Amino acid sequence: MTRTTLRLVGCRKAFADGTVAVHDLNLTIEAGETLAILGPSGCGKTTTLRMIAGLERPDVGQVFFGDQDVTRLPIERRDVGMVFQNYALFPNLTVEGNIAYGLKVRGMAVAERNKRCAELLELVGLQAHARRGIHELSGGQRQRVALARALAPRPKVLLLDEPLAALDAQLRERLRSELDQLLRGLGITSVFVTHDQGEAMALGDRILVMQQGRIAQLGTPREIYQQPANPFVAGFVGNLNAFTVAGRTASGLKVSGGVLPWGEAGEPTTVYCRPEHLRVVSSEGHLHGRLLGQFFQGAQSRLLIEVGAAQPLLVDSADSVIHAPGDHIALAIEPRALFALHP
């Protein structure tokens, strides 16, 4: 597969009613990279993907594939492969017919077309299903046919719009792993849109979090989760506990339920931590509260703990101890697990 750097330079897109979907977007996607565009409905992620594809033209700005300005080129001239949420497969064609369709339209010779189809069927593990109709396939198999069809012409860029959204939770989890292995094996520049944070964390080399048509943060999954740029990113990616600071003592920050260890200068108005960073302890802890509920989640339990007037805390614990509602719970936290954010 060809490896192509993709750039959006100052791209802005507004619709007829005056709504600005994307504001002055500057973005570079490295050759061979998989970028996940993550955000809530209406944040501009699908419009960004459509501008890359050529399905929407930016009102201002340019789109480059490598050194080529493709801003005014339609999708059929951009050399992109696209997988849609509903797969958009031809129900009257077999699996093989769907994969070969784009090659046939391009005028590829029959022998070469058959060879390429065989390669793609092997790649997605559907050799035994080549002659089957689309209606005979499961949701996961249809997703793989759609992916094979998009890859058949050897595109420069692969674009995926909510590629796993139509699948049930268990199948989505399995295909997420398969898709990750496939994309990494191909090394093709890939961009996919999702509202599923788990999908973005699992598949993206980097994640672009969008908020109201702008970049809220761009970084690796680890950076996005551990070093969120603002409260929106922190709250959208993963669960979050927020503590309103009531003052500072010699031992830390006074919050509802106790005192948090804080070694940094200054006194932030709010500090945050992830649920897995709070530990249930038997001795004195930094926080004290009352258990509202404990929910078994397999490898861990989710505890909901009331601490004064603040929002209940979420605690993810691998401890097998079963607590009863109303039990007193002491919690400890490492200072490095706490962070403050700028609005």
TrEMBL record:
Lineage: Bacteria, Pseudomonadati, Pseudomonadota, Gammaproteobacteria, Pseudomonadales
One Gene Ontology cellular component annotation held by this UniProt entry: ATP-binding cassette (ABC) transporter complex
Keyword NAD set for record: no
Gene Ontology biological process terms in this record: quaternary ammonium group transport
Protein name according to UniProt: Spermidine/putrescine import ATP-binding protein PotA
Molecular function GO terms recorded: ATP binding; ATP hydrolysis activity; transmembrane transporter activity
Keywords carried by this UniProt record: ATP-binding, Nucleotide-binding, Transport
Organism of this sequence: Pseudomonas graminis
PROSITE patterns found in the cross-reference section: ABC_TRANSPORTER_1 (PS00211), ABC_TRANSPORTER_2 (PS50893)
ABC transporter domain location: 6-237
SUPFAM superfamilies: MOP-like, P-loop containing nucleoside triphosphate hydrolases
Top-rank taxon: Bacteria
